[in-house]
Queue: 4 jobs
Job 1
Amino acid sequence: MYRIAKTFTFSASHQLEGLPVDHPCSRVHGHNYSVDVELEAAVLDDVGMVFDYRRLAPFRNWLDDCVDHRHLNDLVKDNPTAEYLAYWFLTVAQLILDTPIAAVRVHETDRTVAEYRPATRLSL
């Protein structure tokens, strides 16, 4: 299986619900996020690629226009944990790019990462 990934960045704030009041993440705070979008293919296309990286630009544009410098609690229906964001970004990327996404990883810091990888490949 061939795999590629591209990393995108944005900055946003959030506040996690359900944590003790003395937990730092229960307060409004922000991150400089990195998001890795991974695609895979059993065979390469006629050019020898899994997917042309340039075709990922619509997802980057959506992040820039709709997510960057926003409060994530205002954008998502569930608690905006890194785990939930990975799922949400995978779902949005599939819709925008009209192609199955193998996985999405969300880095809140350079030492933390959450990944959503469907148990079975989602098809459109």
Job 2
Amino acid sequence: MRCVLIYNPAAGRKPDLRQAQIRQIASALTAEGHSVDCVSTTGPASAAAQAREAALASTDVIFACGGDGTVHEVLQGLVSENEMPASILGVIPLGCANALARHLRLSLDPATAALQQLRGTTCIIPVGRVVCSGSVRYFTVMAGIGPDGALVHSLVTRHKTQLGRFAYYLHATRLFATHRFHPFEIEYKPAAFGNRVIRTAVGVMATRVDSLGGLFSGLTSRRASVRHTALHLHILAPPAWLSLPLWFLSGWLRMPGVNPFLHSVHVDSFSCRSIAGHAPHLQADGEWLGCLPMQVSMVPNALRILLPHI
């Protein structure tokens, strides 16, 4: 197979280690008879254009080498809404959370993960679609409005991958304890049946994986899957000063049903709009996308992805 490895040479706290990891992955694939090209990103959002260019050049597999943010950027160049996607997305976990890689049950050893996928199967999956400020972005892991959107926005000017997991958690705790989260409206229709519903929320999270990793692992559903055509929508009701800590506590205990402020439902789409002039932040796959209003929907058969044999 013809493979392309797309990676950010400046990512992580040890750039030299990242280069060594890419060489190790390339050597492992070459030893198995695959053709490999290593492509480093050239700036913010360049990975999408580079992935699209590789796909147009008839590359078989395009590996996103990095964390969920790198996967998110590569994804933008590979999703197809109107025809069968050509190239296949592979995931090499080199980040901190690696939520998608963990969901796919990939090894956290980069070379092993690459071989696992090439020896596995190909699956065509739906992706989430966010429309905000006239722009369209796709996601595989999750989209969130409110607390997690504010957290990601606060890190826009920082080097997230250089914070370290403990520093990241400390920053999140400080933000959640001191920031005022304004309510907004969410409108949705349950996927199975029912009429459209409008609720007031201080936080919304639409998930597609069974764990977000680390301290946030309990905030999603264990039944969530990237293969599902519906989103697992979690709606947090006001007041934020009470509902937010209860959300984390019930998530850590794996007892979301005891939280009276949390409502979970499966939806095909939803929209959010601001109230009284306050426009909360939103993010997808750990990337800040802007502020409300926004709409989220699902795009069927939009992405080919490699899955390991489990």
Job 3
Amino acid sequence: MHNEVQEILDLIRSQAQNDSLEAVAQKLLKAQQVLAFEVDREGATEDCWVMLDALEAYIANKLNGFIYAPADGFYDAALQPLYKFVAEG
């Protein structure tokens, strides 16, 4: 778990700091468990994404957690953005 948390904290530190991002970092530092799902982005169907959203929301709700979507941002258990990454370029 430590490696995953440290990787995400490093990513957070690379972003322009604001209150929303600081709140995400504080929640992450309090994390007791990390669940990771690996998805084939190219091969995943729309039904797969819908199922994944529902599963992530369910787990985040039951475990009082949040969702990290690499290259996208952080979301609460209702799939509402806590922080969205700014596109580079």
Job 4
Amino acid sequence: MDLSWKEGEMPRHAALPLRERKIQEELRERKIAFELSSRSKKLKAFKRQSRQKKKPVGELLCMLNYCSIQARILRPAFEYVPKSYNLDKQLHGLISHMFVQYPVPAFLYQSCLKHEHYPFKDRLEVFRQWFVTLAQGGSFSKLVKGTLTSREACMFLTAPTANHIHENVWWAKMKVAGLPETLIDKLIERIFSHFILDDPDGRMAEVIQFYARFHSEMNKMTFSEITDFIAWKIRNDRSFHMQGRTITSVIKLTNQWHVQMQKAKLGIHVEWKGLQIPDWEFEAKNLIWTVTELRNNRDLINEGRKQKHCVYSYVHWCTSGRSAIFSMRAFRKIVSGYTDAGYLIWDRSQEQTRVTIEVNSQNAIVQVRGRLNRLATDEERGILRMWAGEKGIRTSG
């Protein structure tokens, strides 16, 4: 459609710009009101579900796994009286009643629960021994000798409550190595969460030492790109080692790997459930913004080729449910037609900008990257916050 016109002339659709704007604004207000109403209903339903009753001790015991430390019980379970209506607190209280004489880090209580989805369930027996040793005043540093040094054992006891136990082993090692906590959290999520305590070939120790030595020489983008590269190599190349590598050599390898990822072939078609968030659209002054979730490896490989970055390597994260990838795009505001109801149909052929968004399993945005891994612009961040707010996704700022 030819949208040009001579000076003094008006196109046939320009006679109703105010009406169209009012219609669009009304639709947008209705959409926001619907989202808020739905969120409010979900919150009320959640609050109703969270008003739990105090469960009988026998029912609580069925949720615990303590057979291997049964001989260490200090007080009979039937004497326990729950003080809270919250199920987690009831379980925590029962475990404390049965086993605990001295304070134990909250994350170690995980070891006494029955787990369906813990990534390394076979190691929970080891962690239960750690728990009961601390709870009853035994020598923890002696128990974990060979896994943690004395300094690492002390640091382990101060690790974040929200982490899995094996993640906090790596947390303690990195903390003692001198890494800042903000980087430790990212390294756990990207690399160390997927590895249990064994490190027979020393590869994980080499990774820690590399970051301890060179993290101060990395900016945010360099850290992200190198970490993606190392995570992929550690997982997919058993012969890969970090020992003896410098920051310069690793950056060179990272750049080569990014090129390989952009040229990667599709192979077997893979799909995943993702977050199931519907496509989103917003009309700005001169642009139409859209956000779409990418739910198969074909979409990721096309996104990576368009953006010249390594999002294709995130197939593993997506299929395991640890990450969801979204593509936010802006198109020139060009009319291509009208619906039967008289609403404008926008052309989507002239893309102006695009960023790729990673959302983690806690519904928080952890990365936003444009072409060649550039950071998002102020305008893109503004649109991103609007989308995230409507969809209940947390942002860092």
